[in-house]
């Protein structure tokens, strides 16, 4: 907090000043406020521990099939962890995005709402969705297993309130050689409450998002000939545009280094994408910004057996309720629908 901010301080007694004495006063107030904030976070964390439905967990290991999202090696926070058939997504106390995502899962899985102090404070931001929308949506997202606290995180993580996680189904768990693509959907990738600078940053990041309505965030493809996974990172996706995105999709669908594509997998993915599109055309509860579709198929399918394919919606840090217009009608998520329609068309033409 800047000294100049003191004028608006809730104490109402301090005025901005440039004298040393008052500057010290400002600094100590700042320190006090920091301590109070830390204390509040600690309190939230222990309340979270008390309310966490799925309890504690230890021996988490770094997820070995994360293709997008926060990665420390890219200077972007804490990554995804895994254990058994679950993944664990960090829920840093104090980050409104993560509590927003938790609130979304609570609304979808009809858990006692609100379940944590973090979501209680923002419950008004996401009114209960229409039940007919939610029933089907539950099948389109990873199953949610609650909030857990990791027992074996570092003391530093504990004091920063960083050891809680969203526990959810690992959509790759049943695959031997999962080939994965994370595709960020929609024309708009920022939330309805985004600042001007966030909007500018997002617009600049990937202009084809406006026309395509999607962006390949990252992929991982198994090469059955060499028995090696090939990763495709952020740069790969940002390098695709309207004229090259089809080639990017071919790369995802080839397990022989590009010689051919998995036609059966492609057809099954299309079936699932059309089902998601059909839901979007009917639902009137949510608009999804910066949310992804996570595509997975088996890279080492048994000959003769139908290939396993999974398509799921993930990453709900910026989901907003659709509110009724003046005449009481509810709109649709046109940005997501545009992206899905384009993606389906690109895949149909491969
Ligand atoms: N339920 C899941 N099962 C398997 N893998 C998952 C699951 N959820 C996420 N992942 C993996 O983790 C990556 C990041 O997930 P997610 O987009 O939710 O994280 P994030 O850090 O919020 O991302 P962003 O920085 O784009 O907001 C995905 O690209 C995917 O590879
Ligand atoms: O995928 P990229 O290109 O790495 O970009 C990040 C991605 O779009 C995240 O979804 C976003 O977080 P939000 O979902 O919160 O917008 C983050 O914004 P940030 O810079 O504000 O963290 C971006 O940097």
Secondary structure topology:
Elements: H1 20-51, E1 56-57, E2 61-62, E3 81-83, E4 86-90, H2 96-108, H3 117-120, H4 131-137, E5 144-150, H5 155-159, E6 164-169, E7 178-185, H6 196-205, H7 209-212, E8 214-223, E9 228-232, H8 234-238, H9 245-252, H10 263-282, E10 286-288, E11 292-298, E12 309-314, E13 319-321, H11 334-348
Parallel strand pairs: 1-5
Antiparallel strand pairs: 2-3, 3-4, 4-6, 5-6, 7-8, 7-11, 8-9, 10-13, 11-12
Helix pairs in contact: 10-11
The structure holds adenosine-5'-triphosphate (ATP) and D-MYO-inositol-1,4,5-triphosphate.
Structural summary, described in words:
It is a single chain. With 350 residues, this protein is an alpha+beta fold. The protein folds into two domains: 48-169, no CATH class; 178-348, Inositol polyphosphate kinase (D-amino Acid Aminotransferase, Chain A, domain 1, 2-Layer Sandwich). 35% of the residues lie in helices and 19% in strands. It contains eleven helices and 13 strands. It has helices at 20-51, 96-108, 117-120, 131-137, 155-159, 196-205, 209-212, 234-238, 245-252, 263-282, 334-348, and strands at residues 56-57, 61-62, 81-83, 86-90, 144-150, 164-169, 178-185, 214-223, 228-232, 286-288, 292-298, 309-314, 319-321. It has a six-stranded mixed beta sheet, with helices on one face. Strands 9-8-7-11-12 form a five-stranded antiparallel beta sheet. Strand 8 (214-223) and strand 9 (228-232) form a beta hairpin. The longest helix is centred in the first third of the chain and has 32 residues, at 20-51. It is globular, with a radius of gyration of 23 Å. It starts with 19 loop residues before the first helix and ends with a helix. The structure holds adenosine-5'-triphosphate (ATP) and D-MYO-inositol-1,4,5-triphosphate. Adenosine-5'-triphosphate is lined by residues 66-70, 80, 87, 89, 142, 168-172, 180, 182, 218, 292, 294, 314-315, 317.
């Amino acid at each position: 907090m800047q000294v100049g901010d003191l004028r608006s301080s809730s104490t109402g007694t301090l005025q901005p000043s440039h004298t040393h004495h008052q500057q010290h006063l400002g600094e100590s107030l700042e320190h006090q406020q920091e301590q109070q904030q830390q204390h509040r976070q600690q309190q939230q964390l222990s309340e979270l521990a008390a309310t966490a439905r799925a309890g504690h967990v230890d021996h988490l290991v770094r997820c070995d099939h994360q293709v997008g999202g926060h990665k420390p090696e890219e200077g972007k926070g804490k990554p995804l962890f895994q254990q058994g058939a679950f993944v664990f997504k960090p829920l840093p106390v104090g980050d409104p995005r993560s509590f927003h995502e938790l609130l979304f899962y609570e609304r979808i899985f009809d858990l006692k709402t609100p379940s944590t102090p973090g979501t209680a404070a923002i419950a008004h931001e996401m009114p209960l969705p229409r039940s007919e929308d939610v029933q089907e949506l539950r099948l389109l997202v990873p199953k949610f297993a609650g909030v857990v606290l990791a027992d074996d995180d570092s003391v530093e993580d504990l004091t920063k309130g960083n050891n809680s996680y969203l526990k959810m189904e690992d959509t790759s768990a049943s695959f031997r050689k999962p080939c994965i693509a994370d595709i960020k959907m929609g024309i708009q990738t920022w939330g309805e409450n985004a600042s001007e600078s966030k909007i500018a940053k997002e617009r600049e990041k990937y202009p084809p998002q406006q026309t395509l309505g999607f962006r390949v965030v990252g992929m991982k493809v198994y090469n059955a000939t060499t028995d090696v996974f090939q990763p495709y990172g952020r740069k790969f996706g940002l390098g695709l545009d309207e004229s090259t995105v089809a080639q990017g999709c071919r790369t995802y669908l080839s397990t022989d280094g590009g010689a051919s594509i998995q036609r059966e997998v492609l057809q099954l993915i299309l079936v699932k994408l059309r089902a998601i599109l059909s839901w979007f055309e009917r639902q009137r509860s949510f608009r999804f910004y910066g949310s992804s579709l996570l595509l997975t198929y088996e890279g080492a399918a048994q000959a003769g057996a139908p290939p396993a394919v999974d398509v799921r919606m993930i990453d709900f840090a910026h989901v907003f309720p659709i509110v009724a217009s003046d005449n009481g009608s509810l709109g649709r998520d046109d940005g997501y629908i545009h992206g899905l329609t384009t993606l389906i068309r690109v895949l149909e033409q491969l």
